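FORM 7B: Structural annotation worksheet

SECTION A. Query
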Amino acid sequence: MPNEWVGPVVALRDLTRAYGNGEAEVRALVGINLEVAAGELVAVMGPSGSGKTTLLSLAGGLDAPTSGNVVVEGVHLSELSRRALARLRRTSIGYVFQDYNLIPALTAGENVALPLELDGMRAARARKLAERALEEVGLGGLGRRFPEEMSGGQRQRTAIARALIGERRLVLADEPTGALDSQTSEAVLQVLRARCDAGAAGILVTHEPRYAAYADRTVYLRDGKVVGEIGGAGEPEPKAAQAPAAAAAAGVAHGEAAGER
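SECTION B. Predicted structure
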């Protein structure tokens, strides 16, 4: 995607996602409108089942909305062919999943380099960039380890390095600190924050108000709808002191167990 685009990196417009039909229909998201600009990190909070993970899946083109539009750098995802959508996901969007999604047969370095190699970059160049990305998340020298030889935290940081490698303009992180201790979590969020400060757009799903405080603004979901927001116009950064109270108002319990979002 062209980096000259000056509008929002991602825009969710009147987004609704429903599953099932008739009386069995369940609406995971209803009428969501959200824009994230270059250089901006937006946190999404809400109780289990509020639609957080569904929102990320739609924003990243992993799922299609029932109605509404997802627009990435001016391109409507619904208008792309399957091949074009797959290429956009591979080159422009970085994903961090709760369960890592690493390939067991590949080393950490190979996992991180894979998106670049799939896009045609020479293996040697891709591996060098992968080493740099691993160093950025504190895993320098561990590129030859296989996922089974790494701790949960190391695997998650490998997944984050893969999401940040290359020129990804949009980074989507679903509870990226879930398997990490507090110190490592802070380090990972600093990396994510730095990438956004360098021009990427990010959406961070978290149930921890202290981690949401790294974002420029925080959006709260409940029953698939936006029920509140802090930060944004007139308040450039969410205030850590406000976050717990705002989260409680939206029905988010501190330390809530991760579930379907």
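SECTION C. Observations
The chain has eight helices and ten strands. Residues 10-249 form a domain with the Rossmann fold fold (CATH 3.40.50.300).

SECTION D. Sign-off
Analyst initials: ____
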